[in-house]
Design a protein that fits this description.
Length: 244
């Protein structure tokens, strides 16, 4: 396995590794600034691949912030490997994620973020949005890079396969197809529909992102607010129903 690196927004690099066993891309995003930020650590077992990719962009020891949405191996499995190679790095997590997961799991204490809290990267600022159960997990949150309006949206807009790094259309349709295709299978119900889901999508759409940095599948450049609004409707249509 090897990774592909694409600059999807100024100084925002998508590091994509296609995993043939899963038939899915696992994407990390590196924001290169005075205090570099890595979104998603990737799997522990893929750490050497991700490390080589990051090394081609900057000295990994200079990483300052390690972010992820929710506690799962593709989001943060290699967290302790990164903490070992980057002595001044800190994990960023929601208050729930810090207290319930990382307090035990992480080799060093994380920085716990309140909803709406801002983290400075130097020229850029990252805003943390607590989004419990969106895409899934009590601890879930998302990060928004305010300078160029990039939303790191984790599993939202999940697309299987090995698509192009960056597209300007079709992302909602591809995500709809993926959700519809998973219904009835072992991975159905990954995203619960709660009383807060519609409100959360409206809030995310209101950020008006220019780039959507997706963890699995193509990133999107364009009217991100509109795409998020449309995805919210798709999710309500397809999974806004009681669990089965
Ligand atoms: Fe996930
Ligand atoms: Fe994921």
């Amino acid at each position: 396995m090897d990774s592909t690196i694409t600059e999807i927004a100024p100084e925002v690099f998508r590091i994509s590794t296609f995993h043939p066993q899963f038939g899915v891309q696992f994407n990390q995003f590196l924001v290169r600034d005075q205090d570099p930020f890595l979104m998603h650590t990737g799997f522990q077992r893929l750490f050497p691949i991700t490390l080589a990719a990051v090394r081609s962009l900057l000295d990994p020891a200079t990483l300052r912030w390690l972010g992820f949405s929710h506690f799962e191996p593709d989001e943060c499995g290699a967290l302790n490997e990164w903490l070992a190679v980057a002595p001044r790095a800190e994990a960023l997590a929601s208050q729930v994620g810090a207290m319930v997961m990382l307090d035990d799991f992480a080799a060093r204490p994380p920085r716990a973020l309140a909803d709406g809290e801002v983290v400075s990267l130097g020229r850029r600022r990252l805003r943390f949005l607590a989004t419990p159960h969106l895409p899934h997990g009590w601890d879930a949150g998302l990060f928004f890079e305010e300078h160029d309006r990039t939303l790191f949206c984790s599993d939202l807009f999940f697309q299987p396969g090995d698509p192009a790094p960056l597209v300007e259309s079709g992302i909602v349709e591809a995500a709809r197809e993926a959700i519809a295709g998973s219904l009835g299978g072992p991975l159905a119900n990954d995203m619960p529909y709660t009383p807060g889901t519609e409100v959360a999508f409206a809030r995310l759409a209101g950020l008006a992102p220019r780039t959507l940095a997706t963890m699995h599948g193509a990133s999107f450049r364009g009217d991100g607010g509109r795409a998020l609004g449309e995805l919210g409707v798709v999710i309500k249509d397809l999974i806004g129903r009681p669990f089965t």
